[in-house]
Amino acid sequence: MMAKPSIPKGTRDFSVDEMAKRNYIFDTIKQVFALYGFRQIETPAMETLQTLMGKYGEEGDKLLFKVLNSGDFLSDVTEADLAERNLNRLAARLCEKGLRYDLTVPFARFVVMHRNELTFPFKRYQIQPVWRADRPQKGRYREFYQCDADVVGSDSLLNEVELIEMIDEVFSRLGIRVAIKLNNRKILSGIAEWIGAPEKIVDITVAIDKLDKIGLDKVNAELLEKGLPEEAVARLQPIIQLQGSNEEKLQVLRRELAGSETGVKGIDELKYILQKLSASPLRSTLEIDLTLARGLNYYTGAILEVKALDVQIGSITGGGRYDNLTGVFGLPGVSGVGISFGADRIFDVLNQLDLYPKESMQSTQVMFVNFGENESQACLGHLSRLRAADIRAEIYPEAAKMKKQMSYADSIGTQYVALVGETEMAAGKIALKNMTTGEQSSLTIDEVIALFV
Amino acid sequence: MMAKPSIPKGTRDFSVDEMAKRNYIFDTIKQVFALYGFRQIETPAMETLQTLMGKYGEEGDKLLFKVLNSGDFLSDVTEADLAERNLNRLAARLCEKGLRYDLTVPFARFVVMHRNELTFPFKRYQIQPVWRADRPQKGRYREFYQCDADVVGSDSLLNEVELIEMIDEVFSRLGIRVAIKLNNRKILSGIAEWIGAPEKIVDITVAIDKLDKIGLDKVNAELLEKGLPEEAVARLQPIIQLQGSNEEKLQVLRRELAGSETGVKGIDELKYILQKLSASPLRSTLEIDLTLARGLNYYTGAILEVKALDVQIGSITGGGRYDNLTGVFGLPGVSGVGISFGADRIFDVLNQLDLYPKESMQSTQVMFVNFGENESQACLGHLSRLRAADIRAEIYPEAAKMKKQMSYADSIGTQYVALVGETEMAAGKIALKNMTTGEQSSLTIDEVIALFV
Q1: Which of A55, A121, B58, B297 sits in a 20 to 30 Å window from B245, CA-based?
Q2: What is the ipTM of this complex?
Q3: Interface test mutation site (partner B, options A22, A26, A42, max chain B beta carbons within 10 A)
Q4: In which residues is L-histidine bound (chains A, B) (predicted)?
Q5: How many A/B residue pairs have CB atoms within 8 Å?
Q6: A391 closest CA partner among A362, A364, A414
């Protein structure tokens, strides 16, 4: 007996219902991307390991899925290699390709390879799966989609403004209430500079992040424990206790960080972005949050994260500005700013709040019951008419028992069931049953079509 | 100096223009699939090698991309394994996953794993990349998309009828004139049975296929050479020279194959399908073609292939009926019928015939030139209005030289360029330039919006 088939751990099949939901999310995002002038690209699932290795830190390198060379994969492997059993060295001999780990490195590689064909600023989006050999756990998969939009080759803060508007528009269309949290890497650098402890940024943001949970005394104690001088902790108090409106926060920051050129630059950037956005009809809350420190080594300007207001879940979108996307591939000076929507978490949020619009889940609009050879022949004509009017319609392929056909109708969630028996054929009518209301009426094909116009 | 980045051979990046074209193809196909009640699923890129191996013949096994186990991939490898250098055995120890080779085997695995959640007949479509370690050459890639629609769990020939209508509708929407060629595996079996040489089917169809090129004498010579008895070749003459309308062909076949039960069954099936389709407003040519023998071991009933009439290229779509999709995974009795669109070839055909509709290639509709801080602030308000009306619009992010901004406008193929300088701001107007005609007019934002309604 054959073993039951299975799929690799951490991967998923998507059923027709799940796909309908995912398509709704991706289609919504794509429409908004297009509204703002972003255009799609795709890159191959496999990249050379030369492109991938060393880009995600030592831990990242370990999480790359490597693809065994095809043909004689041992041809480059010596006896000594085998005897030594050094995993890294052997993997480098056995594999020259890997599966992409994110969309950023392939995009950087794309920009470098195609730089002569591209006009900058280049506004691209990309929605493709990525693979990571992470330990699978709830909500963490080894294959998942990323959904990125970036503008490269422009330093203008208008790009940040438009990306935030895009985020607002996407979540407004999806019906998810969100807070968009903003920070700026330069402000964080300014703070660290100002208290004379540049290497402590992470400790500081981590401690501030706990303020609500553990209270000010414990935050201060933690900072001292991390080796911050008492004087620095004292100076940090207005920052740790930063509160009030965005304007109030900016005022405090401007006062405290006046001595840091970098800090002031960050404050100016943040202020500019908020000011531009104040003219936009945003529906999301915009909130300065100094604890945002995502990808600290990567981002150089704006940092943003999006939190759903009505569901307890991690950030559902993030992004920021980086100064040097392509330097690692030998092309310096390409700066950019981008955002990434967390499709899996957005999927969970929409599920929890039950926010999928009925239309997005609907497939077939009219299903014809099959009563036999003559009747189905009549239905084929009706089907042509409906489909020509862009109405999604199908016929049960066999003259099975009514119960079976109706259970199929239920399973596909059809809006109407159409019955064409001898009576209907003689009268040139269709008995149409509304599956929501249960109501049944006798209509001509033109009247059926008119229902959907 | 860093090496120039590259991508694995046989793989491709898709630029924004290529993606627009591909999306046009896939969107057209998806819309038609949905019109006929097919719904989308997706399966993981990686499958277990247990699922993949042995399904594509020995040659296919060699073309599978295998993924190195993560972590200590040598843990299962003994000294003896290493010493022996047996590639197959070693690969089996090093890898337990591979990249999917087609969409059919993963679909069969999906049906078996989810059989208790599915209602049959199950009509699914799937559009995803597949990977094959083939030698790359013109038009053959190591990563390419397949685009499959199948109905499983129904023996009704109505499914064949609807699939052929779908093909007709897709190519009609794409504007590609095609011939749909039909055959039936049972007719081929009938022929082989009837001349007493069941093992010669492939030789026979290959020889018949050359009739146009080499002529009847040489076809007959080839058949004799392949070991067919003279008497069999003589009996085959009416079949080899089969000509005329589909009705005439069916008549000849029915006369010649009257003695073969299987053959007659195949003829009946073909006739039924043609008859049902005769009531449909098909735009494609339907043509019985006995040389169609694709996937002979796999198909058990209808076989079909689609040829573009105006471009010299291999078949751009194919499909057929199979009796036992899931038997290899321990679930017998699941029959089905399916088709597969060749996206890459369709892409080439549309390119050669220059058939992409202008709208499908258009991204941004209005691009605002950036004249500076105040002017761009005014543009942001206009942009909100346009986007709220679902008009795709953007602003050049910096106040760069006019020439640079216009060259960007060209590169994105915007329909209009909008200029808002001091004069326009004072007058509450927008100077709008039609990029096709060069015409320029001074309009209010409402008038601009009205252009697109």
Answers
A1: B297
A2: 0.94
A3: A42
A4: 102-104, 132, 146, 150, 294, 298-299
A5: 291
A6: A364
Contact residues, chain B, for A63 at CB < 8 Å:
70
CATH architecture of A16-46+99-353: 2-Layer Sandwich (3.30)
> In chain B, what residues touch A20 (CB-CB under 8 Å)?
39-40
The answer to whether A380 contacts B15, with C-beta atoms less than 8 Å apart, is no
Secondary-structure class of domain A363-452 per CATH: alpha beta
d(CA A24, CA B261): 50
Tens-place pLDDT, residues B169-228: 999 999 999 999 999 999 999 998 888 888 888 888 888 888 888 989 999 999 999 999
- Dihedrals phi, psi of A271, to nearest 5 degrees: -65, -45
A146 is in an annotated binding site: yes
DSSP B100-149: -S-SHHHHHHHHHHTTTT--SSEEEEEEEEEE--PPPBTTB-SEEEEEEE
- Across the interface, do A68 and B72 touch by the CB < 8 Å criterion? no
Question: Do B11 and A44 lie within an 8 Å CB cutoff?
Answer: yes
From chain A residues 255-314, the ones with a CB under 8 A of any chain B CB are 276, 279-281
Is B421 strand, coil or helix? coil
The string of pLDDT tens digits covering residues B288-347 is 999 887 665 788 999 999 999 999 999 999 999 998 889 989 999 899 999 999 999 999
Nearest residue of B to residue A118, measured between CA atoms: B411
Burial of A150 (0-12, 13-18, 19+ CB in 10 A): buried
Instruction: Please answer yes or no on whether B117 and A408 come within 8 Å at the CB atom.
Output: no
Q: Is A344 marked as binding a ligand?
A: no
Angstrom distance (rounded) from CA A36 to CA B365: 10
Nearest to A165 by CA among A322, A324, A319: A319
Q: Give, as one character, the DSSP assignment of residue B390.
A: T
A435 part of contact set with chain B, CB < 8 Å: no
- Flag whether A356 is marked binding: no
Nearest to B11 among A46, A119, A408 (CB): A46
| Chain B contact present for A159, CB below 8 A | yes
Token pair belonging to A81: 């290699």
Are B16-46+99-353 and B363-452 in the same CATH fold? no
Q: Which amino acid is it at A70?
A: S
Sheet holding B46-48, edge to edge: A46-48, A95-99, A66-68, B66-68, B95-99, B46-48
Nearest to A404 by CA among A355, A372, A370, A375: A370
Q: Are B310 and B179 in contact (CB under 8 A)?
A: no
- One digit per residue, the tens of pLDDT, for chain B of length 453 reads 466 899 999 999 999 999 999 999 999 999 999 999 999 999 999 999 999 999 988 889 999 999 999 999 998 888 888 888 899 999 999 999 999 999 999 999 999 999 999 999 999 999 999 999 999 888 889 999 999 999 999 999 999 999 999 999 999 999 999 999 999 999 999 998 888 888 888 888 888 888 888 989 999 999 999 999 999 999 989 888 899 999 999 999 999 999 999 999 999 999 999 999 998 889 999 999 998 876 657 889 999 999 999 999 999 999 999 988 899 899 998 999 999 999 999 999 999 999 999 888 888 999 999 999 999 999 999 999 999 999 999 999 999 999 999 999 999 999 999 999 999 999 999 999 999 999 999 999 999 999 998
**Cβ contacts of B1 on chain A, cutoff 8 Å:** 330
Domains of chain A, residue spans: 16-46+99-353, 363-452
Q: Chain B: nearest CA to A412, how far in angstroms? A: 9
Cα separation of the two ends of chain A: 54
Interface with B, mutate which of A47, A51, A70 (most B CBs under 10 A): A70
Q: How many CB atoms lie within 10 A of CB B137?
A: 8
CB of B129 within 8 Å of a chain A CB? The answer is yes
